[in-house]
């Protein structure tokens, strides 16, 4: 019982406190690739601390939905942190939901963020909301088919179960279907977390914004919650990618040694994925908005191919 | 793609160390923020640049701050698009009649605590446009200004120095 | 818990009495419209409450049998009976009818002086009674008679506001489609009755083995077309987006929330009971048409700026989702995977109940808005959340529920549907595996698009600034209407947090239909499918969200965060003016979707610019038309219509006007009849 509580506490603290560090690492790597000294690694923590001393300037046109959304967004991410198998296949609260539950929790956050974007009555917010919902809707089929592909192989859709059964297979990394599903899920992760080539998180041009456009009206503690939730979403997606598709290192018990090793493995895997994202963002340019559906259709095709491969190679 | 990566791998980090600019002409007018805010801003300051009718000379120098040579991000400074996200307003230009009201609105849209840094001779006292028919007044006549960085245009180092001066602790 | 059958019999009689007295009472008090409104709708409410009692008794295992051979002299007379599937659908009817009738007491006040409240009262009672009795019908003629009564009553309800030509046309198309469906049902039923030798539903399952494959498939297709047109499946849906917006809002709620579910009832009976174990391709066909309906329905909802039509298209989408479950269940059943069939059917039936709840809520909300703003056009709305805060909150609950988001009921039923479809890998046929993969993709796309459509529906209607003078002067609606909506909002939340209540009842229903229980275990805290293939804890998800929502402000307090709040204008880049013209519109919101799916929408753009005669630099007027066309109507109905017109023109030859020709026709017909009956 005590181990379970400590384990869940460790999970939630890792995600909650580690998210800004992940964002900092990605920014630092991108800066170094651009030949600049770059942001200090812990900058996102300073940003959040600073935001907490600022007042919240709220538009007169908004309603309670605007003030409610940041709290809901952070709450869905924290709840997801409890469910995601971060360190072990015996996550104490893992039975609360499977991967479909996670995707719909994320969609709940996106739904309210889009409403908040429309709430202020500015054209930017409406534009961001419209584009965000379009990207989210088009990414859903890919997610579900990729889940189908990995669930087929594992015989279960419970996250812990998928990792347990994949970890037992050493040749997994060479399986074509597995690689295809990984590629599809990676593209979806980029789309859902607002990374290049779908959305540029560092842009200042409103017409090129998707996620940023919805949060133009936020300030102070609300903005801090939203930025933190966005960082947590990125961490959660990278954790899913790391643990579902590259399951080695995930503990199969709850002994302290296994958990410690799992923590180190997680950090290494997520950092590698983060550096990979930084490299990708440096190499590609943002896609025109109406080319994004083509990208998502491409990733859907990859996921469908993964499913077909699993049918033929039972 | 390969040429890009070759270039990336060959180019080292070119950021120059921070140095005080010998010709910086900086004047501190106000201190709008308290010690707690100043300490937090010292590590992370989000800047919204407002062009109140300038000739864009100052903008070019401010733009240079984003380049790898000066790289203002290493100090925790960051340019943002929305004044709601900003802690510091960097204002350039003699405030023209058409930009007086938008500047006031931008100032009001920025959440407290905030600082204002006026950049350039025009922002200080309308510069060479003083008395012209299209000019409403200096920046300090429209919004409260913490620091003025004079020059036409001031160097990027001077501008950086001005921003830091605004965040300095109270002198004993 | 075995219900005393005599008690159930009395509940049944009491229910019929309420509806009967309601109808007659409304007629009798037609001179006093206020009284007619209260009597008609109040007694309908009482009837609906007794229907609820009847349903609960039926789900617990109670039986009731009513045989009236003298009422209908052929085909075995009127036979009514209750089994668990019927009881479930009566529950769905009650869940839709109780809030709707409560709501109607307040809503129809606005019709006083303009339309006959007595007529509304009579037709509503007949409609509700017919719907409940249809699910209890146990032989062909009873069923058909009650079905027709239901359709006619709903037609009269739809054309209440007949001064609007759109409404009349909508009613006409509805009448034609419902009778086309009825014709299919008639032929199908008579074929089946002829082949099995009996008109009683109860005996068809046993005798279905004697049918040859052609008859079975033919009957299935006919009955599927008939029930499918009532359910609103593509391509038989064209009456839905016309009739539901035209009807008064409580009628739209009843039609969308309840009546179209009777199409599902019929399909479930056909697929699982009357024809025995079906062929695999039947389920596959249902699955494919359902996937098509789901995606196309929500795509049309996405681009519509008429609030009630958006909701109507969303009903098409949700019927698609329900039939995905039914089709999957039929496929599983044909492969002998009865436990999975039961699971898929539970998902479909649970979604039926949920949809009744949230769609009725949404239509009633739309009715409240219509009442306050006098328009259905979303482009004229805005800021209603400040003027109608309670309606807004209730509509939000409906919108979040229909977008299948936790912690509401839509999420659980869509989750269950996903689990059923994901379990399809147990089917040994590759073609069906692939079909199920496509179905999963379609369901996922629908889920995302539905969320987008309801961001639009709620956001444009309620948020930001009012886009018209009517929206500025809106006011909150009366207590009756809010009470009706509140009941459903509470139900949506309740079923979302504690779905095990419904699933327990559904397990019994599907076991009766499919023959085996689903591999679902549930208690108050967890719902597990197929031995930990998937688990979810609806209660703890809701509780978790609640706990974090309370903890976060406290955490901010602990970190000594600045809690000041200052109100200022929206950031408009320093612009001095901020009006509603700067906001996003519903059409603009739907633009990315219009562009991505333009192959379906076939948008027609037309831009006319009128310049000042003296200079091309000055513009007088700009007219911009951007219309989406219905592919189904262009490709499917237009050719049929053209063919029918051609046929009618050619057949005019018979009407020569010559009396001698007509006498010859009569003579030939007589000879043919005599020869046929030899």
Would you give an account of this structure?
The complex is a heterotrimer of chains A (314), B (172) and C (678). By secondary structure, chain A is mostly helical. Chain A has one domain (2-312). In chain A, 70% of the residues lie in helices and 1% in strands. Chain A has 11 helices and 1 strand; from the N terminus they run H-H-E-H-H-H-H-H-H-H-H-H. In chain A, helix 7 runs antiparallel to helix 9. Chain B is globular. Chain B has a single domain (34-167), classed as Rossmann fold (3-Layer(aba) Sandwich). Chain B has 172 residues and is of the alpha/beta class. Chain C is mainly α. Chain C folds into 3 domains: 1-203; 277-560, no CATH class; 601-678, no CATH class. Chain C is built from 27 helices and 8 strands. Chain C has a 3-stranded antiparallel sheet with strand order 3-4-5, with helices on one face. In chain C, strands 1-2 form a two-stranded antiparallel ribbon. In chain C, strand 7 and strand 8 form a beta hairpin. In chain C, helix 5 (140-158) packs antiparallel against helix 6. The termini of chain C are far apart. The model of chain C has no long low-confidence stretch (mean pLDDT 90). The interface between A and B is medium-sized, with 34 and 36 residues. Strand 1 (56-59) of chain A pairs parallel with strand 6 of chain C, so a sheet runs across the interface.
Spell out the blueprint of helices and strands.
The complex is a heterotrimer of chains A (314), B (172) and C (678).
Chain A lengths: L1 H32 L9 H9 L4 E4 L4 H20 L15 H21 L3 H32 L4 H9 L8 H17 L18 H4 L5 H26 L10 H28 L8 H21 L2
Chain B lengths: L1 H9 L14 E4 L6 H9 L1 E7 L5 H8 L12 E3 L8 E5 L2 E2 H13 L5 E5 L1 H5 L9 E3 L1 H4 L4 E4 L5 H12 L5
Parallel strand pairs in B: 2-3, 2-4, 4-6, 6-8
Antiparallel strand pairs in B: 1-8, 5-7
Chain C lengths: L4 H24 L4 H27 L5 E4 L9 E4 L2 H24 L9 H20 L3 H19 L6 H32 L4 H7 L5 H19 L8 H7 L2 H11 L1 H14 L5 H23 L4 H28 L3 H36 L10 H4 L1 H14 L6 H14 L7 H33 L6 H4 L6 H19 L2 H15 L5 E3 L4 E3 L4 E3 L1 H21 L6 E4 L17 H4 L1 H6 L1 H4 L2 E9 L2 E13 L3 H21 L7 H18 L2
Antiparallel strand pairs in C: 1-2, 3-4, 4-5, 7-8
Helix pairs in contact in C: 1-2, 1-4, 2-3, 2-4, 3-4, 3-10, 3-14, 3-20, 4-5, 5-6, 6-8, 6-9, 8-11, 9-10, 9-13, 10-14, 11-13, 12-13, 12-18, 13-14, 13-17, 13-18, 14-16, 14-17, 14-20, 14-21, 16-18, 16-20, 17-20
């Amino acid at each position: 019982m005590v181990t379970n509580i400590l384990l869940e506490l460790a999970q939630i603290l890792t995600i909650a406190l580690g998210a800004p560090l992940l964002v900092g690492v990605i920014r630092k790597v991108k800066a170094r690739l651009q030949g600049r000294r770059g942001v200090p690694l812990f900058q996102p923590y300073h940003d959040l601390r600073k935001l907490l001393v600022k007042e919240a300037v709220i538009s007169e046109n908004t309603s309670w939905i605007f003030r409610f959304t940041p709290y809901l967004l952070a709450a869905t991410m924290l709840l997801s942190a409890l469910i995601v198998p971060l360190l072990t296949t015996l996550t104490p609260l893992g039975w609360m939901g499977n991967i479909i539950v996670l995707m719909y929790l994320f969609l709940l956050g996106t739904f309210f963020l889009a409403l908040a974007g429309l709430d202020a009555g500015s054209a930017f917010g409406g534009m961001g909301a419209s584009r965000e919902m379009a990207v989210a809707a088009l990414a859903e089929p890919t997610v579900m088919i990729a889940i189908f592909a990995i669930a087929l192989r594992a015989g279960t859709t419970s996250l812990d179960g998928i990792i347990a059964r994949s970890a037992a297979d050493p040749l997994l990394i060479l399986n074509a279907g597995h690689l295809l599903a990984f590629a599809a899920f990676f593209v979806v992760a980029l789309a859902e977390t607002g990374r290049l080539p779908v959305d540029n998180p560092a842009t200042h041009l409103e017409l090129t914004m998707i996620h940023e456009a919805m949060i133009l009206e936020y300030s102070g503690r609300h903005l801090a919650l939203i930025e933190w939730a966005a960082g947590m979403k990125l961490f959660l997606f990278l954790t899913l990618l790391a643990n579902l598709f590259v399951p080695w290192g995930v503990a199969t018990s709850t002994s302290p040694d296994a958990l410690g090793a799992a923590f180190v493995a997680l950090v290494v895997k997520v950092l590698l994925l983060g550096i990979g994202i930084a490299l990708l963002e440096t190499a590609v340019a943002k896609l025109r908005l109406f080319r994004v559906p083509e990208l998502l259709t491409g990733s859907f095709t990859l996921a469908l191919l993964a499913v077909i491969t699993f049918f033929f190679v039972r | 793609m390969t040429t890009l990566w070759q270039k990336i791998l060959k180019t080292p980090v070119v950021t120059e160390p921070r140095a005080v600019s010998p010709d910086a002409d900086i004047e501190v007018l106000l201190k709008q923020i308290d010690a707690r805010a100043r300490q937090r801003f010292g590590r992370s300051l989000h800047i919204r640049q407002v062009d109140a009718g300038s000739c864009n000379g100052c903008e070019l120098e401010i733009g240079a701050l984003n380049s790898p040579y000066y790289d203002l991000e290493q100090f925790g400074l960051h340019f943002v698009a929305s004044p709601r996200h900003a802690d510091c307003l960097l204002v350039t230009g003699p405030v023209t009649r058409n930009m007086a009201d938008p500047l006031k609105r931008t100032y009001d849209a920025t959440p407290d605590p905030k600082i204002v840094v006026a950049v350039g001779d025009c922002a200080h006292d309308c510069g060479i446009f003083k008395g012209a028919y299209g000019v409403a007044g200096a920046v300090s006549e429209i919004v409260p200004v913490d620091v003025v960085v004079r020059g036409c245009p001031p160097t990027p180092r001077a501008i950086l120095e001005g921003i830091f001066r605004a965040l300095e602790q109270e002198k004993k | 818990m075995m219900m005393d059958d005599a008690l159930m019999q009395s509940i049944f009689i009491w229910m019929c009495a309420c509806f009967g007295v309601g109808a007659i009472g409304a007629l009798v008090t037609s001179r006093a419209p206020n009284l007619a409104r209260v009597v008609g709708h109040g007694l309908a409410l009482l009837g609906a409450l007794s229907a609820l009692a009847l349903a609960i008794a039926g789900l617990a295992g109670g039986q009731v049998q009513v045989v009236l051979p003298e009422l209908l002299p052929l085909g075995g007379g009127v036979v009514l009976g209750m089994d668990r599937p019927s009881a479930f659908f009566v529950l769905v009817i009650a869940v839709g009818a109780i809030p709707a009738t409560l709501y109607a007491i307040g809503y129809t006040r606005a019709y006083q002086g303009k339309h006959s409240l007595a007529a509304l009262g009579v037709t509503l009672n007949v409609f509700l009674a017919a719907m409940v009795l249809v699910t209890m019908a146990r032989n062909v003629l009873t069923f058909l008679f009650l079905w027709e009564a239901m359709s006619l009553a709903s037609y009269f309800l739809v054309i209440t506001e007949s001064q609007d030509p759109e409404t009349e046309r909508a009613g006409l198309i509805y009448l034609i489609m419902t009778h086309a469906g009825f014709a299919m049902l008639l032929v199908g039923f008579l074929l089946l009755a002829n082949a099995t030798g009996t008109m009683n539903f109860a005996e068809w399952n046993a005798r279905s083995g004697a049918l040859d494959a052609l008859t079975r498939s033919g009957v299935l297709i006919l009955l599927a077309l008939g029930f499918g047109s009532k359910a609103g499946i593509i391509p038989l849906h064209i009456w839905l987006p016309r009739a539901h917006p035209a009807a008064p809002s409580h009628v739209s709620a009843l039609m969308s929330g309840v009546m179209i579910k009777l199409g599902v009832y019929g399909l479930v009976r056909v697929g699982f009971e009357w024809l025995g174990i079906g062929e695999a391709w039947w389920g596959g066909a249902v699955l494919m048409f359902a996937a098509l309906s789901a995606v196309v329905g929500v795509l049309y909802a996405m681009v519509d700026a008429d609030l009630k039509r958006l909701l109507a298209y969303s009903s098409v989408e949700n019927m698609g989702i329900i039939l995905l479950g039914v089709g999957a269940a039929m496929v599983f059943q044909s492969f002998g995977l009865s436990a999975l069939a039961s699971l898929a059917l539970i998902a479909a039936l649970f979604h039926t109940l949920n949809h009744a709840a949230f769609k009725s809520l949404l239509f009633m909300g739309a009715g409240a808005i219509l009442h306050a703003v006098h328009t259905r056009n979303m482009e004229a709305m805005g800021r209603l959340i400040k003027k109608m805060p309670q309606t807004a909150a209730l509509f939000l609950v409906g919108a979040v529920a229909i977008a299948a988001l936790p912690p509401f009921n839509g999420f659980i039923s869509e989750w269950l549907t996903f689990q059923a479809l994901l379990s399809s890998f147990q089917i040994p046929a590759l073609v069906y595996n692939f079909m199920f993969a496509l179905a999963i993709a379609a369901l996922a796309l629908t889920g995302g698009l539905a969320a987008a459509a309801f961001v639009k529906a709620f956001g444009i209607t309620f948020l930001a600034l009012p886009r018209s003078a009517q929206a500025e002067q809106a006011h909150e609606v009366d207590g009756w209407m809010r009470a009706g909506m509140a009941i459903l909002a509470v139900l949506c939340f309740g079923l979302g947090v504690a779905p095990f209540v419904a699933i327990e009842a559904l397990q019994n229903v599907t076991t009766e239909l499919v023959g085996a229980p689903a591999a679902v275990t549930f208690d108050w805290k967890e719902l597990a499918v197929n031995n930990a293939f998937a688990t979810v804890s609806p209660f703890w998800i809701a509780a978790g969200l609640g706990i974090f929502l309370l903890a976060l402000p406290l955490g901010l307090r602990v970190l000594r965060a600045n809690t000041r709040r200052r109100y200022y204008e929206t950031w408009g880049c320093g612009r001095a003016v901020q009006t509603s013209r700067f906001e996003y519109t519903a059409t603009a919101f739907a633009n990315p979707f219009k562009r991505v799916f333009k192959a379906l929408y076939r948008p027609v753009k037309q831009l006319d610019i009128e310049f000042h005669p003296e200079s091309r630099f000055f513009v007088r007027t700009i007219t911009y038309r951007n219309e989406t066309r219905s592919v189904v109507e262009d490709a499917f109905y237009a050719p049929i219509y053209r063919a029918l017109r051609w046929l009618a023109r050619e057949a005019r030859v018979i009407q020569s006007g010559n009396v001698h020709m007509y006498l010859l026709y009569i003579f030939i017909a007589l000879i043919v009849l005599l020869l046929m009956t030899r």
